[in-house]
Structures are given as structure tokens and as C-alpha cells.
Amino acid sequence: MGLFGLLGVATKGMTMAQTGMDLAGQNISNADVDGYSRKRMNLQADYRMDGTFGQMGFGVNVLNIERMRNTFIDQQIQQKNQEVGYYTQQDATLQSVESIFTEPSDTGVQKYVDQFFDAWQNLANNPTDLSARTMVKTNGEILSDVFHTVGNALQELRSTQNQQIETSVEKVNNLTKEIFNLNREIAAVEINNQHANDSRDKRDQDLKELAKYIDIDTTEDSSGQITVTTSGNIIVAPAFQQNLATVSATRTLPDGTTVNDVGIQFADSRKNYMPQNGQIRALFDCRDTFIPQYQAKLDTLAASIVTTVNTQHRLGYTMNGYSGVDFFDPNGTTATAMNVSASVESDVNNIAAAAGGQIVAFTEPAPVALTFGNPPAALTNKNILANSMRVVAGTTTLVEGTDYSVDYVRGTIQLLHNGYNGTPLTIDYQYSDNGSKGAGDNANAIAIAQLREKATMNPDVLGTNSSTFGEYYSAFIGKLGLAKNESASNLDTRTYLVKQYQTQQDSIAGVSLDDEMADIIKYQHVYAASARVISITGEMLDTLIKM
Amino acid sequence: MNRVSTRSVTQHMQELLANKYSQLTNIQEQLSTGKRLNRPSDSPVDVANDLKLRSTSAILSQNSKNISDGLNFMNVSDTAMTSMDTIIQRMRELAIQGSSDTVSANDRISIQQETQQLFKQLVALTNSNYKGDYIFGGTQSKIQPYPIETSATDTPADYQKLHMAYFNGATLGVGQPAQIRNSFDNTAMTNIIPGSLKIANGATTYVEGKDFTMDYVNGIITPTNAALAVDISDGGTFAGPNYKMGAFSITFERVGQGKDVYGTTVANTGNVLREIEPGIVMPVNITGSELTVNPSTGIDMMSSLIKFNQNLLQNNRQGISSAITDIDSVMQTLLTAQSKNGARVNRFTATQDRNDSQTTETDSLESNLEDVDMADAISKFSLTENVYNAALKAASKTIQPSLTDYL
After folding, report:
1. What ipTM goes with this model?
2. pLDDT above 90 (res A208)
3. Model's pTM, two decimal places?
């Protein structure tokens, strides 16, 4: 080999050192980039055929640049990320549910339920006191308001899940689009037997990100392109990418209101899609299972309070001597619809604190014939229950307020027009055999106040109620806490696993500045030494020329 | 050996610090709120129990209010009954005095002056109230159980007034008893307070014993003077003001009975209740009939004392003597009612004591569950703080050195 050949060998060394510096620089600057794998060059000693020695060294060749990464670990992370995505979302939603209930505190439902029944006790202590009555009404309103607030907040949280599904679907589409593009880049580069290192880094990163949203499986073909399937459906293939699309459907909730719920379809096939895992699945589960579960519990509690209090309240007598009055609006049997009844709302004297006598069903012994314009005719009994009367002429049932009017307290009836003059009317009704026992009668107020100590909810197999309002509520708050704890610990274990894998991957792919610095020194010296070889070769050539 | 990258060192360190910091904030939250339980997931079982305890505590505190209110009610009843007792004692002394042979008719009339006032005071006491509610009226707390009703004067303009009297019987004459009735609703005017009855026609005043005899308990008058018989006779059936108009007048006071707005006599036997512990509801009131009617002898306070007054007024020594037994019976009724009330007071007080100790117990249980053990939390806080500081120090040492420092 001649001296010129030596120049070539040294130049190759300098090129290699330069490339090495390049890589070290690149590695250092990307030391903190997510998903970046450190790059390393593979070298090979070059040789030529020498007449004397056979193979003779001919400098160094940079074979290729390789990224340091264990793709198996990436797949593990990808799998675990689906669960991380799922539990992160579940945990966040349950945390919101927790803060909606604000228990244990002085502003939670429990506190106001207690206050409501305390107000009844207070009324029992002061049955003739108007302010005690107003307090019962106000506490009924406050209780309804608290149920509204909690119920609406849960409803709001539920619809937030829908919005999040839409946002997440958009992110999924962006990711799959990017993966599809990266696929093409990788294939284009690697067809020349080169490594598309950075595109692969990016694609691995995207896949891990995608796995947080939905369940995915990936397979890589010989060209380096991957196919991504979710729940058995291809969303990214070498040849195409399929978007997800949200569709909205109207649903009717138990309390009669309608909501627009979001569903997912494949944009091209219009086939319905439900991910098996990941954040989007958690959003669906939260929307369709977890949140409704707490809504249902709250509704059950509201309904139970409304019906139980009403049943007892109807038995009692108001200040005006009427019975059969509802305290809560009987139609408002969900948390959001609960309300104090219109009659109590309009007049606190309609609160039935008195127990009065017994309710007796009664039919007038003989048909009653009335004449329009005559003074009210007395019935056999007084203290008739409001709305309990039925007046029948032959086969026609007369309408109260249109055909006749009744003084329930005095027990009198009169016609309102002359259409039934002299017609024998069959009259039946319910009355209280003892009527109102006076303003100081507080027995019904106590009976209502006692409802909170009675088992009124949670019927067992025999239909016997087994919990009080408070027990039912505390049990479900306890369950909420357990569910939150479970999701948090599920999330913790998954996150821990991912972190473990990440650490493993990091020990392979992560950039160590010390390593790189060492490399830089190394390549600096290689470069300097190679340059030295060139300059000495130059001197040698000089010597040769001057000869 | 595992290769350690620069990034993983910082990341690991950051996570570690964040972890310690969140522990620190957690303890800090507990310390500043004083509460160990701030959300259900802090300890689901404890939170469920805590909610139950809070409810129990609410019920206990409300029951305690109910008990004190009931005790106040019963104390008012007791005060009223004690005063009534004193009055009846005095009446008994006067009855003994009046039954003496040596007392003249005039003396008896002056004794009656006192007993009449005592009786009115007694009736006023039966209408005692607590927070504006009549305590002896049963559940009819807005209606006076024994109102003292005054008859209206007899001018024609007052015709429609309640308690105006008329006398039934078409041919009223000397020796013929007539029932005094209310001209408005036809009810018999019983329990007229002796000494309050005045009958006059212009300047003529009719005098009991001379012009008529009177049964005050039943409200029956028997004229002994033909002029009075003419004055009060209407000569026909009831159809309007069937006593003579003009100068003739009859006025009196009587002990009535509570009536509702429809004019129906109401029962005073209802129980006013208080819940003193979960599921236990107790009456706090002494009903009107418990106060006035002796269940074994059937003797009624009002009518027997009216009769006593009548006997004094009518100088009936025999009647006055027998009134002493009646008064004893009335006193017995009152004492029974008082001891009934006293027994309830005892029960309420005992329940209050139990309620107090239960409240203390529940509060301490609640506090055990939800309150932070300060000493424990503070020591945990300093420990975590130390660890955090150490971690910070270690971190600052670990990430500082690099090969570049030595090149």
C-alpha cells in the first residue's frame, strides 16, 4: 500500500470520529426527550487485498446507526398502559364523585337529612308555633336543594364523560393518523436497508400513548410497517388508516329527562365500537355504570324519604283540620326532582303535625238527593279526608269543583249546578273518627321525626326493611370510598409496573451524559490521532518528494 | 450491572421527592383541618361509621332539646298545680270554718266572698299556659279548657251575642224550675259562679232566697216571687228573644268548657308528646280531666266547688259539711295529678342524664374516628419532613456531579 492509501485510512478514521461526535451530540441534546433511544454506530474494520499479506486493514467503516432499545419492553408497557389509562380515568371520576358528596362534613346530605328531622322534633315541641312550622318547610326545601345540587352535579359529571369521550376519540384519530404516516416513512427508509431510528422512536411513543386510550394489538411486517387492531378491528394498516367517529344518541334517564349520549363508530364501516380497555372504556364505564350507580342510590334515598314522609304526613292533620296532604311533591321521587309539595309551600299550616283520630271508610246509608241553590246538606260524618270522596249518580261519577263542592271539615255537600237536582247520589268517603284533636296535637310530627330511626329502606328477601335513611346513606358512602380506594390501588400497581418497565427500558435506551462525554473524549482523541496520521503521512510524502 | 441513564436519575429523584411531598401535604391537611377523615376514601369503613355516629349524635342532641322542653312544660304544670293546691287548702279551711254551728248566715256570705275569688283564681290556673299553649287543655292547646264566661247584658242589640240567657218553659210560674240557656245556641248554662248572678228589672233587684232559689251547678232557677216569674216568662216557645225586653236584666259568670270555632265542645284528654329517646315517646301534659275529675269518686272540681259556694251563699250548714269530703276528693285528684307529673319529671331527668352520658360517649367515639391524634400527626409530620429534607439533600448531591466537571 502506498502512502496515499494511508491518507485514506486516516480520513476514514476522522470521518468515523466525526460521526461518533455527531451521535454523542445528538444523544446529549435528546437526553430528555420522551421515547428517545440513544443511538450507537456499528463499526467494522475495512480491509483490502494485499499481495503480500492477503487481507490488509483499510481503515474503519461505519456500518449503520442503531437505536438502543428493547422493543419487547415497549410492548409490555403498551399492554399495561391500557390499564393505566383505564384506572387513571376511573380514579379521577370517582374522586369527582367523592368531592360531590363532600362527606364527611357539615355540608353533606346526611347533615341536612338530620336537620330536616330535627326540625320536625322542634315542631313537635312547638306545634302551634308558626316559626317552627316555617322551619320544617324551610328545612324540607333545603333538603330538596341539597339533593338537587348533588343530583345535578352527578348528572353534570356524567355528561362531562361524554365530552371527554369526544376529545379522546379525536386524540386517538390524530395518533392513528401519525402512526400511519410514520409507517410509510419507516418503510421508505428501511427498504434501502437503512434504519429509520427516529421514526421508530416516534411510532413506539405514539403506540404507547394510543394504548392509554383504547386496547390495541400490534403486528409488524417485514417492511417494518405495523398493523394496529383494536378489539379485533384494524385501525392502522400499511395501506390504510381508519378513523373513529362519535355519534350521539338520545337517552331517557330514570327521572324523565333526556340526555344526548355519545357512542363510537368506525368512520368508514359505521360499525359500532366499544373499546375493551383504556381511558375511553373507563369513560364509558363511568358514564354507564359507576356514576348512574351513585345516581340511583341517591334517587332511591330521595324517593324513600319522599314516600315515607308523605305516607306518614298524609295520616296526620293540618292546622286547618285536613288530612291526606302530602309534604313532598309525590311526583318528585328522584334526587333532582324532589320538592316540597305545593300545598305546604303555599301555607305552612298545611304541615300535618297532629295525628287526629282513625281513618274510617264510610258510605252514606241512603242515596242523597240535593237541590242546587239550597244550603249545604250535612253528611253523616265530619272531618272527611280531602279527595277521598266519590259521588256517583247512576253510572256517572260527579266531578268535585264542577258538579259539587264539599266542606270537608264540617261534612257538608252542595251542588254547583242544577243538572243533578233531585237525583239520588251514592256518596262514599273516608273520614277521621276523631277529627283534629286540636292545635297542640303533636303526635304526627313526632311520628315523622321518628322515621329517621326506623328501618325504612333496603328490604331483605322477606320484604322487611333493614336500614334507616342514615344507615343506607353511610353504607353507600362507605362503598364509594372503597371503590375509590380500589381504583387508586389498581392504578398504583399498574403505574408501578409501567415504571419498572420504563426503568428497564431506560437502562438500555436512556442517555447517560457521562457515557456520552466519555465517547466525546474518545472520538476527540481518535480524530486528533487520525489527523496526526495524516500530517505525519504528509511529512513522509514531503521527505519522499524531496529525495 | 444495570446501566443508569441521566434522565432516569432525575426522573426517579423527582418522583421520590413528589411522593414525599404529597405525604407531607397529606399530613399538613390533617393537621390544619384537625380531621383525619376528609373524604370517604380516607378510610371507607371509618367514614361509614362516622356518618352513623354523626347521625346518632344529631338525634341525641335533638332528644336532649325535647327533654328540656318537656321538663319546662312539666315545671309550668307543677307550679300551676302547687298554686291550685294552696287555694284548695284554703277553701278546705274556710269550709271547716263555715260548717261551724256558731257561724251566722251573714258570716257565711262573707266567707263566700273569699271562696268565690279563690274559685275564680283556681279556674284561671286551670288555664295556665306554656309558650302560649294551654297546658291543661290536652292537645287543644289553643282553646282555654275552662274559660270563665260572662253573660252579655240584655239589650236587644246584644241579642246575637253568646251567653245571653233565656229561660225555657212556656208557662213559667212560681215554684216552677227553669233552665237558664244560651239564647244563641240553646245550651244549658251550667256551673254558674255563685255570687255573680244578678237579676234586676229597672230599679227592682230580685234577691236570691226571697224572690227565687237557684241551683248553680245545673243553672236552674225557680222563681218564688210572682213578679219575677212574670218578668222571665216569655209566654211562648223559643223563637227569638223569649225573655222580656226592656229594663229586665240577668248577668252572671260561669265556668265554661273549651269550644272550637264551630261551637263544639272539645275534649281536653289528648296527650302532648315528646320523644325523649329513640322510639320512646312520653306524654308531658296533665289533661283537664286528670286535673279535675277524681276517677274513683267521680267528683268534679268545678261542680263540687260551685256547690260548696252555693251552700255558703244559701246558708246550708249541712251542705258545707259534706263539701269538706268533696274538697278532700278534689285535693286527692290534684295530688294524684301532681305525683304523676313528678314521676314524669323524674323519668325525664333520668333520661336526660343518660342522654348526656351517651352524648359524651358518642362525641368521643366520633372524635376518635375523625379527629387527628395531634401528637401522632406532628411527630409523623416532623419525621416526613426530615425524610423529605434528606431526600432533597441527597438529590442535590446526586445530580450535581458529572464527568464534565472533571474534563
Report:
1. 0.81
2. yes
3. 0.80
